Structures are given as C-alpha cells and as structure tokens.
Amino acid sequence: MTTCKISQIISPAFYDAHRAIKAGLADELLAEGGRGSAKSSFVGIELPLLLLQHPECHAVAMRKVGDTLRNSVYAQICWGLSALGMAHLWHCTVSPMECTYKPTGQKIYFRGLDNPDKIKSIKVPFGYIGALWFEELDQFSGPEEIRNIEQSCLRGGPFSFTFKSFNPPASARNWANQYARETRPGKLIHHSTYLTTPVEWLGPRFLADAERLREKSETAYRHEYLGEVVGSGSAVFENLRIEPIDEKLVRSFDRRYHGVDWGWYPDPWAYNACAYDAGRRVLYLYDELQRLRTSNQDTGRLLLDRGVCRDPDAGEYLTADSAEEKSCGDYRTMGLPCRGAEKGPGSVNAGVKWLQSLDAIVIDPGRCPETAREFSEYEYERDKRTGEVLPGYPDANNHHIDAVRYALERVWKRRGA
Fold first, then answer.
1. Which listed CATH number (1.10.150.130, 3.30.1600.10, 3.40.50.300, 3.40.50.1000) goes with 6-202?
2. Whether this model's pTM surpasses 0.85
C-alpha cells in the first residue's frame, strides 16, 4: 500500500500512461523527451508499483555502462520509493546494488551492459524476472542487444513489462529514433517535455537555463529541452510532421494521388497514396504498401483490393516509374489507369526540391511506417574527408520518396517546379 496519491507525485503528462499500465493495456512503455520531462521519475515510481501488483515478479534496471547506475537508475528508484512513502518497506544496498521489498522478498537489480554475463547470471530467490528498465536507450548498441536481453530475462512467468527511456538523439538515423517510430499492439509511445512538468518541480534556475538556450540557439533548445529529432545538419526534408492523420480528414480528400516505384529484390516495390492541400501547401501521405519478390499481377491486385482509382471520375491518378513501361502496361491490362512518369534531365532534383518547398509534409507513422522512416532518415551525403555536404540527392533508401514524387508529378510540373 502507498501512503500518497499517485497524482501528486507523477507529472500530469503521465496520468494516461499510468492508468494504461495499471489496467494491463500495455506491455512496454517507450518514454522519450527532453530535459526535465519527468520520464525517468515516472519510471522510478511505476516500476515498484508493478512489483506490488505482481508479487512473484522481480525487476532489472539497466544502463549501458555499469559505472553510471548509482547516480541514475538506482538513485531514481530510491527517490521513487521515498515519494511513494514506501522507503521503510524496502532494503536498498549498493554492494550488491539492489532494492528488496521486505514483505515479499522481491528484488530490483541494477546492471550495466558493459558486462552482459552479469545480466544472464542473475538468479532470483523465487518467481521470475518480469520487469526491465533500459535507461538512456540510445546508448545501447541497437535493437539486437535489447532483444537479446529481453529474451534472456523475460521468461518463466505470466507477466512481463519493459520500460525504455531516452532523450532522442539529433539524427533521425539513430536506431533508437527509428525504434520510437515503430508501433505495435501493447507498445505505449510517450513524449513529454519540461513544459508538461509542473513548474514548481523544476525551479527558476532550470526555467531560466531553458529560456537562455532558446534565445541563443533555437535548434539546440528544441533538441535538448523539447526532445525533438532536429537532424544532424544534413537532413533533406526539414518540413516533416510525423503524426497521425484522422480518418475523417482522409475521407474528406477530394483529389488523391497514387504513386508506384517498381522493385523486386533487394529493392522493394513501393506504393503511396497522397493528398495535397494547395491552399495551405501541405502534403498528406496516408497510405503505403511495400513488397519484395512480388509480381505485377499480385501488386496490382493489392491496389485493386484497396480501391485505388476505382472511380474514373473521382479525380484520382496513378503514376509509376516509366523505366518499366511493360509493368505500367500490366497494370492497365488489369484496369488500373497507370501512366509512366515523365522523366527527363533534372526531374529528380525538381521533384525533391518541390517537396522541400512545401510548408509541411504530414506522414502518418501508423499508416505509413516505411515512408516515415525514409523521409526522416533521408540525408545529404557528406565528403568522407572534409565532412562537407555533397550536392545532389542520394539514390538509396528512397523508394517511397520516389513513389511520392511520381504521384505528385502532375502537380509540381504544372507549377513550374
């Protein structure tokens, strides 16, 4: 039993996350945000509460480097126990570094992954390890390392939950930023900032430092305090908005554009559906498909089943890479009004520049995860010797970008791009 109200010790930004975890609606929390976002404080409270709900369960809190444990996850858990009014019910030691719940003997272990064997060698006194916390997720080696730890630890019991917290690195290509865009049932993705934290928790010095950095460098402020992926200075598209697109808005689109980039293997076949708000200069990307080693007949059937260009009077267009005119012909034979893109010298640069010129490119990460990844990670190449940005656009990992460019060709060419 706790002796305080949870609403008094967790930031209001986490109320819904707390309710979802308590109700068993999630098995993972990915908490990202900038300085002062209260994400680590929330985990420091939520992890012990999970153990109270599951008396056969133990937990492990991890950092990549063991020397950083005491002043980070260990200190945060000890703070959480005190905030919950439960410190007297726990025995916390630093050698070995662990916290033990006196009424049941449940333990929270603390480990660094600079010695993975220390994780695999944990022997619990009873029950099983059911909860993990990866603090500063981006400092770990990558998804394979995380997956191996989860598979090694989370077995033998009916319950499991993983906390993953980090400040997003600047580059969209960082594996943790990519992982944060991947959705699945049970995975709760949460973003918070110091602006969602009660002011009295932060103090005037913190707020003054944040404001000082905002005035000095807007980009650094957005990255450090707002937890935004601001790029490494070589992002091609700086006008992206990766956010859900409401179904009501999708139904309201009166003109839809469809694009296909042919592929087989290792390059995939890629399809995108788009809508363009010319008045606001906003492009919406609301649907995608991607396949490997799939015939024209099968991909064409996928489009027909999706209702692509079903109504010839609906103002919809399907444009594909004209380098494969036979493939365009296969689609037309199936009843898809597919035309080849009008390629020519400078057409790639013109299309990408038009996309860059828009006020916003809105990509729904749930509907279009691969498209969101491509656009977010698309960066100019740099000279390996000098580090200077090279002219032109890389012709790699841009299949959905090409599909979108083909889809909107009749728009940007008409506008003299």
1. 3.40.50.300
2. no
